[in-house]
Amino acid sequence: MYVVYLNYFRPVEDVEALLAPHIEWLNRYFDSGDIIAAGRKDPRTGGMIMLRDMPRTRLAAILAEDPFVEVANYEVTKVNVTRAAEPFSGLKGI
Residue ranges of the YCII-related domain (predicted)? Predict the structure, then answer.
């Protein structure tokens, strides 16, 4: 799976202006099963998105559709989950 950290490079007011289309984008990929989890950083300097394993080209295409590309940089890390606490056991092998 992938963990993607978003780091805002624009003021939060610019981020807020794109929040509704960003949420629509998130919903589309939650519905397709590509996104596993997402949330804001605290303090609010960006966010985090977890996506299931997929070809890197597909990941790049999905991220390129996110309206937040106008306000955030993306740090992508591939993670191979081999152990997880019982409530998170479904993350193994995704």
Answer: 1-79
